[in-house]
Amino acid sequence: MTAIQSLERTAAAPLEAPRIPPPMALLAELTHRCPLACPYCSNPLQLTGLREELTTEEWIRVFAEAAALGILHLHLSGGEPASRRDLVDLTKAAADLGLYTNLITSGVGLTEGRVQQLSDAGLDHVQLSLQGANAAMADHVGGYRGGYERKMAVAEWVRQAGIPLTVNAVCHKQNMDQLDEMLDLAVRLGARRIEIATVQFHGWAERNREALMPTQEQVVRTNATVAAARERLKGVLVIDYVPADHHSTYPKACMGGWGRIGLNVEPSGKVLPCHAASTIPSLRFDNVRERPLADIWYRGDAFNAFRGDAWMQEPCRSCERKHIDFGGCRCQAMALAGDPAATDPVCIRSPLRPMLEAAAASDGAATPGAFVYRTMKPQ
Ligand code: SF4
Ligand code: FES
């Protein structure tokens, strides 16, 4: 074949579908059971009961499929993963498969002995949630008396076991003004990193908007607190920060882009591109009980629904930021625009932005009432 023939062949060939890289991370929601009841929980409103949960063997098969698919990071999450009696066995199986294991926990359900067993099983990292800088705030937000004391103990056991610790702090109207104290506490607990995430308004948080939405002044103060702390704590504590997106100019690249970096497996084995994806009624989700994980990632309908940019509408379609934020969050577009392919209303270019700003200002100014706590009972 001549060079020209070769070029003609290339020109005539159908365009190849863009290559999809393998995912980096799997979030395994081992269970929805949890002693805490945080009013912004990222789990769905309709929670999965014990009887529907994947068995130990099923989870281990999923981990093996994940490792074969090229996944590197396994986040053992929930609900509260320590509610699973087989947590140590699952951790050992994952570590033996070469996965980097990260336990995302409230601490409640862990004992000193269990932390040591997890360490012996090969657990690489612990992320401990912190709902406030003191027992009064933390136990109020978590809806669990004694939770704060247990977290303090767990942090110490994790430190003694030599497992690297990150503190996770979800910030909102009621605890944001304690941020400096939470940063100091993270340092005292021996954490190497803190993740400060402003609450995202899906699911349970959407039901608690007036109790959780910060004011614009709080957001500005928090941004300044984080900037100052990053200077002050350089070399001591790494600070990751997710600012309030209702008060930002552009949306965040939710999940790093749909179907680009990671996937979630729910307790029943349903596989989601993000934790809130079930709020999009047009999507159909596969289950690891019925289809191999690799097939779901590469060929699953839900994963391909918002990959690339062909699904985008204006103004995203012709926007220079479309490969930076991927049009924002699909679940937020669904919740606020009623269309999962719409521009995220957080974006300053969305026609719905004025409505979003007005709602955020009004919820921010509202006096917080009682929380609607997360519960396993049907709502
Ligand atoms: Fe992002 Fe779309 Fe807004 Fe552009 S128009 S900044 S792509 S959300
Ligand atoms: Fe689903 Fe943002 S939470 S895409």
UniProtKB/TrEMBL annotation:
Transmembrane stretches, start-end: none
Pathway recorded for this protein: Cofactor biosynthesis; pyrroloquinoline quinone biosynthesis
Secretion signal, residue range per the UniProt entry: none
Annotated keywords: 4Fe-4S, Iron, Iron-sulfur, Metal-binding, Oxidoreductase, PQQ biosynthesis, S-adenosyl-L-methionine
Cofactor note: Binds 1 [4Fe-4S] cluster. The cluster is coordinated with 3 cysteines and an exchangeable S-adenosyl-L-methionine.
One annotated GO molecular function: 4 iron, 4 sulfur cluster binding
One family name in Pfam for this protein: Radical_SAM
Family (UniProt): Belongs to the radical SAM superfamily. PqqE family.
Radical SAM core domain residues: 20-237
The protein's name in its UniProt record: PqqA peptide cyclase
Lineage: Bacteria, Pseudomonadati, Pseudomonadota, Alphaproteobacteria, Hyphomicrobiales
Cofactor annotation: [4Fe-4S] cluster
Gene3D superfamilies for the chain: Aldolase class I (3.20.20.70)
NCBIfam families: PQQ_syn_pqqE, rSAM_more_4Fe4S
Function: Catalyzes the cross-linking of a glutamate residue and a tyrosine residue in the PqqA protein as part of the biosynthesis of pyrroloquinoline quinone (PQQ).
InterPro entries: 4Fe4S-binding_SPASM_dom, Aldolase_TIM, Elp3/MiaA/NifB-like_rSAM, PQQ_synth_PqqE_bac, PqqE-like, Radical_SAM_PqqE_MftC-like, rSAM, rSAM_sf
Presence of keyword Lyase: no
Catalytic reactions on record: [PQQ precursor protein] + S-adenosyl-L-methionine = E-Y cross-linked-[PQQ precursor protein] + 5'-deoxyadenosine + L-methionine + H(+)
EC number(s) stated in the UniProt entry for this protein: 1.21.98.4
Subunit structure: Interacts with PqqD. The interaction is necessary for activity of PqqE.
Native organism: Georhizobium profundi
Ligand binding ([4Fe-4S] cluster): 34, 38, 41
UniProt xrefs under CDD domains: Radical_SAM, SPASM_PqqE
